[in-house]
Ommochrome-binding protein-like (Bombyx mori), 280 residues
Amino acid sequence: MKLNSLLCFLINISLLPDSKSSIRYCDFTTNDRSKYCYAKEILLAITHSPNQLAVDKSSNTLYFSFDMGQGDFVPAVFNMDNKKLTVLNGVRDAFALASDDSSNIYFGGNNGIYRYEKQSLKQLNIKNLDIWWLYIRNNIYFIKFPNLEAHYYKNMTVKELPELKGKVVHQFVLDKQGNVFFINGSGLYGVRRGRHRDIMLRDNPKFVGMATDNNSDVYVCSEDGIYVVSKMVIKVKKIVNVQGVLGLTFDKLNNIVYTNAYEIVRLVPMTRKRSLFSFV
Ligand SMILES: *[C@@H]1O[C@H](CO)[C@@H](O)[C@H](O)[C@H]1NC(C)=O
Ligand SMILES: *[C@@H]1O[C@H](CO)[C@@H](O)[C@H](O)[C@H]1NC(C)=O
Ligand SMILES: *[C@@H]1O[C@H](CO)[C@@H](O)[C@H](O)[C@H]1NC(C)=O
């Protein structure tokens, strides 16, 4: 009887190396002192358009988009708990994706901005808008294509974001204090809230994606890893050595979810105790 249940247990862990299993391997070391290492959980092996990812934190649902050909980006919805994947119809182009704090998801593309709210889609009434990047924090922030200028939408009007006025911006996020961080072809920059002067934080490596976690800490990624912008003295510190990261977001437990060109991965932080077996 005992032997039977032991066998069962062994079979279970070899078949189900999922987040519920308590025995995990360390796939990546980390410089983050609060974590021992990360286990790599492949959520989906899929070719898609690795631009923006967004998570509805209440349902732990991940949104990303596919290139269906002809440059048409169709949003897909992946429930990270039950692993169910669905394609969402109705958004004509979803190049950019973002979530707000109330579990609404926003899609942006060459038809402007849509809000997905309580399972229904609403197109925001902004004319002639092609969206390159979306970020939600109290307001709807976006970068217009093709001129790559940063704007926000408030009280039914579109305004320029003063901190980024006249700058070429590929992606940007805001920290808790409202300071703005952006990347472009030259590097990663910071602009204090209400100011205009930008400060270069790093021009190497080439950063290709950025996001904020649930504490509004700023993360960036490059071909060689994931970095966090530390606050006390502004410093950009690599926390995970992982190749080919093109975009990232955070799940409801604040775990890093990243994408490369062919898979979407969650990094599960390990404690020394939980990962003990991996070294047997
Ligand atoms: C919003 O816009 C309307 C009309 O443009 C204006 O009358 C109103 O004062 C604005 N409200 C705020 C809070 O700015
Ligand atoms: C990126 O932004 C900086 C700071 O505004 C600017 O000096 C630089 O020319 C920009 N790079 C590109 C490639 O546009
Ligand atoms: C952020 O994530 C942490 C786990 O790292 C969690 O304990 C906390 O409740 C989360 N906060 C919010 C505002 O979701």
User: Anything to note?
Assistant: Confidence is low (pLDDT under 50) at residues 1-22, 276-280. The chain has one helix and 25 strands.
